[in-house]
Design a protein that fits this description.
Layout: E1 19-28, H1 33-51, E2 54-59, E3 63-71, H2 72-84, E4 88-99, E5 109-113, H3 119-129, H4 134-137, H5 141-150, E6 167-172, E7 189-197, E8 202-211, H6 218-223, H7 230-248, E9 254-258, H8 261-266, H9 270-280, E10 288-293, H10 294-299, H11 301-314, E11 317-323, H12 332-335, E12 340-343, H13 345-348, H14 355-370, E13 374-378, H15 383-391, E14 396-398, E15 405-407, E16 409-410, E17 413-418
Parallel strand pairs: 2-5, 8-9, 9-10, 10-11, 11-12, 12-13, 13-14
Antiparallel strand pairs: 1-3, 1-4, 2-3, 6-17, 7-8, 7-15, 15-16
The chain binds ligand C2E and manganese (II) ion (2 copies).
């Protein structure tokens, strides 16, 4: 039994807020740069003092790097205000971390202007105001961000953001016929979603997404199946996707279908079946891409390897789907290089706001450029996401922004155009 008179009994209530450090970079739009900058920081200083937020703001006249330290709730709230502030554009969160104490204490918000001080002077005074022991500084990520900004080595990160506001979308009918009804006895249907290359105004392929006869999701459709038949059904239903492509008259466009890799391993004669169906529906093997997800691929890699060889031997393309969402990531490419990689929606969503996501996508782009692997970014919902990804060198996109999946057909496509 706890004695309620015990002095510690009522103490353990409020968790002590952990000190949070948030770093972002942005472009500041000020007409008279140096003077306005100090006025802005002066106003921020009193506001930050009330919120008990301290830190530094570095500027080179155009780009800004700010370090905010304080209780997480206050820091995040302030950061959201900054993101909505019209004077800032291209606000990107670079780091959010937690620590035992502030790096800059009792200083409010320090301003360092690289227009009036040399990089060397700025670095010296940043170090002068810092509370961190000097032996800790060389390994501290915050100081590394500061140093990189001061020395101007961050240019790769601040490639001028393409202004999403300059673009608008124009709706166009897809150049395909209408599909008529389902084949008798068809146990499921497909929705098609285009993968587009907006810079060329081209449709690069159509992805066939499985749907139940009630229109239900792939997940729901696969749940209704006898699980012993899963791989067989997954493989056999691809025949409906090819039939749909034939009915719509996709011409020389490509069609991508999803498959569990085990459907190629466990069903005898799987690749022969696909090749036969492809030919029967008037398609060429080179027009077909099989998409498999990263995780599925890793778990059965050795068995799957011979199926891959067989597929490639027939001329069928292979894409890794949902790249970056699984365990393997780039290391997968040491074992095997596909023709195409589709970057997972999770990494792409709000990429214009996230430094870590940008760094990861840049490394994927660089790797796939070296290996001549075509990249597709999937799940694009915002013009800002597309603009950032284009500027990082990605040319092919799939997402609701451009076209939604349409049952038994191809829906309208929304192409980006520059606003006049
Ligand atoms: P997936 O291959 O990555 O397909 C893309 C999924 O993202 C589709 O969901 C599509 O509707 C959705 N999507 C596309 N653009 C956007 C967007 O801008 N925003 C959002 N929020 N979602 C978007 P769906 O059709 O529900 O398919 C889910 C997954 O089911 C597919 O992911 C694929 O892995 C699997 N799947 C689909 N068809 C088959 C199939 O025939 N066989 C197998 N084994 N799996 C399939
Ligand atoms: Mn897919
Ligand atoms: Mn995917």
């Amino acid at each position: 039994m706890l004695n309620s008179n015990f002095p510690g009994a009522s103490l353990i209530l409020e968790p002590i807020p952990v000190l949070t450090t948030l770093i972002y970079r942005s472009q500041l739009h000020l007409s008279c740069r140096s003077a306005e900058l100090s006025a802005l920081v002066e106003r921020a200083r009193s506001r930050n003092a009330k919120l008990n937020i301290t830190g530094v703001l570095l500027s080179n006249g155009c780009d800004v790097l700010q370090i905010l330290e304080g209780a997480e709730e206050s820091v995040v709230k302030l950061f959201h205000k900054i993101r909505d502030d019209e004077r800032h554009s291209g606000v990107v969160e670079l780091m959010r971390d937690y620590g035992p104490r502030r790096r800059f204490d009792n200083v409010g918000m320090l301003l360092f202007d690289l227009q009036v001080q040399s990089p060397k002077e700025v670095l010296e005074s940043v170090l002068h105001y810092s509370q961190l022991e000097s032996y800790l500084i060389s390994d501290d990520r915050v100081f590394k961000f500061i140093q990189t900004f001061i020395t101007g080595k961050h240019t790769g990160q601040t490639r001028s953001p393409v202004d999403a506001g300059k673009w608008t979308l124009a709706c166009e009918k897809a150049p395909f016929g209408q599909a008529m009804g389902l084949i008798a006895g068809q146990i499921c249907q497909f929705a098609l979603q285009p993968i587009v290359e907006p810079s060329e105004g081209k449709i690069s392929s159509l992805e066939a997404l499985i749907r139940g006869n009630d229109g239900g999701s792939p997940e729901h459709f696969f749940k209704t199946l006898d699980q012993d038949k899963l791989y067989e059904v997954d493989l056999q239903t691809k025949a409906y996707a090819f039939a749909l492509a034939e009915k719509l008259g996709i011409g020389s466009h490509k069609i991508a279908v999803n498959l569990l890799p085990m459907s190629l391993v466990k069903v005898p004669g799987a690749v022969e079946f696909l090749v036969e169906q492809i030919r029967q529906h008037g398609l060429q093997p080179e027009q077909v891409v099989i998409e498999v997800t990263e995780n599925e691929m890793i778990s059965g890699f050795n068995k799957f390897n011979s199926a891959i060889k067989q597929l490639r031997g027939e001329g069928i393309g292979l894409a890794i789907d949902d790249f970056g969402s699984g365990y393997a990531g780039l290391s997968l490419l040491t074992r095997f290089q596909p023709d195409k990689i589709k970057i997972d929606r999770e990494i792409v969503s709000n990429i214009h706001l996230s430094g870590p996501k940008q760094a990861i996508v840049r490394s994927i782009v660089s790797c796939c450029t070296d290996l001549e692997i075509t990249l597709v970014a999937e799940g694009i919902e915002k013009l800002e996401e597309w603009c950032w990804l284009e500027s990082a060198g990605i040319r092919r996109f799939q997402g609701f922004l451009f076209a939604r999946p349409q049952l038994n057909g191809v829906g309208d496509i929304h192409w980006p155009h520059l606003v006049r």
